[in-house]
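agent: user wants the structure for Ger(X)C family spore germination protein from Halalkalibacter kiskunsagensis. delegating to structure tool.
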Amino acid sequence: MRIVIIVICLLLVTGCWDRKELTEIGIVAAIAIDKDPDTGEYEITSQFLRPSAESTQTPSPERPFLLVTTTGKTIFEAMRNANQTTDRKGFFAHNKVIVISEEIAKEGLVPIMDPFQRGKEIRGYVWLCIAKGTEAKKILEIKSDNIARIPANYLNSLIDNAENNAATINILTFMKETLGEGKDPVAGVLSIDKIETKPFERVKLTGGAVFQKDILKGFLNERETEGYHWLTGDGPADTGAISLPSVREEGKYVTVEVLDVSSKITPEVNGENQISFTIDVTEKGRLTEQQTTGQFDDRQQQVDYLREIEEENKKRIEEEIDIVVKKAQQDFQADIFGFGRALSKEYPDVWNNVKDNWQERFTEVPYTVNANVELTSSVLLQGPLEPKQ
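agent: tool returned. relaying tokens verbatim.
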């Protein structure tokens, strides 16, 4: 009996056979994927962290990261080749963002995402962004006056704090929408913003990258991306703010802080060949700034003023949705809004009949947009501010 107890105790205190010591691994916080123009091989740039440079006890003056670029015929081979040039084995579980070149995105991202999904070395919540107008590795190389010293942390915060004029997506959601039916993905876009008055460049998150399945078709500008978020209702509305022309004084503006956005896409079917959609959007916001001066004569003027601003906000939403839907239909032939997904839920039999040629059907489908805006502001009751004589 004593021997059995000893054996059990030995089994319980055994260490993890596959553990990795911190002194043996190199933590990769971000990766960029390009193609070598000469060989056609994949080019992976990994951003390794230097923990000693960020130490709170004895921080080092050296850069807190190391960029290592390696090539390979496959993504996995290129990632593993980094082990031949660094003294630490690459550890990707703490990776925050993957940046992919525009060139590769136009060829299709499913082969690129395959090793990440299959090997599980990179987690599904990692942000996916497309480098517009530059190599992906340049995004990780930019030296600017960011608050964060590590570019991966800067990019992660940039995406976390994104507003309605920028799209964001993680690799898990991207793959679900790519391999699923009825909705095409929109990824984040990173570009290099050159500042003429300062001796540095800055990475900017703006607009959206439109995909038809996994093929990059083109880009949305900031206004079109706002329309995309109004329609889908999945944007970072709690941090958004929009400027509207004042209804009291020409050339002046008011600012509305967007607190919440919800949307619903309702399909309507009249026979198999008569499919249309109704888009209902509801925004709740708060009037936070107005450039006009003067006082309201009575409470009714205050209410009428607020209703007029709501009407301007409503027109803004409907115009931006109309712009982005037309662009998706005419320029991209990509259903990035989930019209097909809504149709499959409400009319599965109809969807089964049209899904094989939905890309073509989507380009011609009619739609109606209805926006409803509810604004509040306790400060408004005092009227616009007016300087005293």
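agent: one observation worth passing along. Residues 20-220 form one domain.
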